[in-house]
Amino acid sequence: MLFLMSRNPEEPVYNRIEEARIDLGLSRQDLAVKVGVHYQTIGYLEREEYSPSLVLALRIAKALNKEVSELFSLTQLKKGK
Question: Which of 66, 56, 55 is nearest to 22 (CA)?
């Protein structure tokens, strides 16, 4: 008997990081320094190619003066206010 094991792909995490970052006049590098990651990580997050850890999501929210729920969602977010 053959059993196929499959992992469900990780559920995507949608975000408004780029919008909030730009509203504050921050570059990706600026935000990266504030949260302690490489600037490319911010790019991966903004393009939703990577889901942040809980700690990183909290750091990003704090750096952008937002609540986590304002920045991140499991459902598609409308861009803009």
Answer: 66
Domain at 14-70, CATH from 1.20.1250.20, 1.10.260.40, 2.40.170.20, 1.10.287.600: 1.10.260.40
Residue % of the chain over a pLDDT of 70: 85
Look at the pTM and tell me if it is higher than 0.90: no
Question: What local confidence, expressed as pLDDT, does residue 2 receive?
Answer: 45
Angle between helices 28-35 and 39-46 (to 10 degrees): 110
User: Is residue 61 a contact partner of residue 70, using CB atoms and an 8 Å limit?
Assistant: yes
